[in-house]
Amino acid sequence: MVISMTGFGKATGQHGSKKITIEIRSLNSKSLDLNTRLPQIFREKESDIRNRASASLKRGKVDLSVYLESESVESSNQLNSDLIRSYHKQLKELSVELGDGADLLPSILRFPEILQSQREELSKELGTALLNVLDQGLLKINEHRLAEGQAMEKDLRANVASISDNLKAIEPLEEQRLEGVKERLMKQLEELKDKLDSNRFEQELIYYLEKFDINEEKVRLRKHCSYFLNILDEEESQGKKLGFIAQEMGREINTIGSKANHADIQKHVVQMKDDLERIKEQVLNVL
């Protein structure tokens, strides 16, 4: 199974006159990078929110935003009556002294700290409603991640299949390559027939055999491709493990390319490298 780290989820819930909205966005990351934006009233629930989000999302750069709207016209701000009376008394005395009978109240209301903001306490019921909406949002984003992962899995399988096909296409070309090497060696032997050093010849032969033999690399690459597909079939999404396997596939493809010394084989190697680059790009986004 493949699950993408990219996704979006949104959920809303109602508690009395209050509407809770949660939006969750995620992108790929090596680990979990969770950023939360919460109204002040929900700050005490931040630990619970983080724990639930971490357990559900596991990896990714995640932005989690919580919004709280009140459908009531009640305000949390109240007039500071004692301060207004104090200002009014002082200004009234000053106005009498100055002979000014202006209305003082509009001016006083513009003074700082006239309005008192009362901090609303989080009720147990509102906290429970918040976590319920969070669970819905996490469910939505995971559904999105799963849908994207299914599309990615098809692409990954197609690229692995392409690498396997190109690997098979190399096999008939190996005989042509070996025949070419053999002809060159025989030609050189003819030229050096009179001054042939048997020990040197044996060393050169071993050198060419080791340099041109790609059978071991082909076997390992087939195994890596098979292992990659097996990981895709597992129930848990394992992006990091897929990334490690892709690195090993790259080593074998590069070695085949360096040993090939054959134009048509190199064409298939280039195609395999192209397929592998697409795999690596996709794997970076796999959970």
Write a concise keyword list for the protein shown above.
Ribosomal Protein S5, domain 2; 15% strand; 8 helices; two-stranded antiparallel ribbon
Encode the helix/strand succession as letters. EEEHEEHHEHHHHH
**Protein structure class:** alpha+beta
How much helix is in the residues?
55-70%
* Biggest sheet statistics: 4 strands, mixed
Poorly predicted runs of 5 or more residues: none
Strand content: 5-15%
**How many domains make up the 3D coordinates?**
3
Strand order of the largest sheet: 1-2-4-3
Spatial shape: elongated
Q: Kindly, what is the distance between the CA atoms of the first and last residues, rounded to a whole number of angstroms?
A: 10 Å
Per DSSP, the total helix count is 8
| Rg over C-alpha atoms, rounded to the nearest angstrom | 36 Å
Mean pLDDT: 86
Q: Short description, anyone?
A:
With 287 residues, this protein is of the alpha+beta class. The chain has helices at residues 46-57, 81-98, 105-108, 124-191, 198-212, 215-233, 239-260, 263-283, and strands at 7-15, 18-27, 32-37, 60-70, 77-79, 115-117.
How does this model look, in words?
The chain has eight helices and six strands; from the N terminus they run βββαββααβααααα. With 287 residues, it is α+β, with helices and mostly antiparallel strands. It folds into three domains: 7-73 and 123-146, Ribosomal Protein S5, domain 2 (2-Layer Sandwich), CATH 3.30.230.10; 77-117, no CATH class; 147-283, no CATH class. The N and C termini lie close together (10 Å). The mean pLDDT is 86.
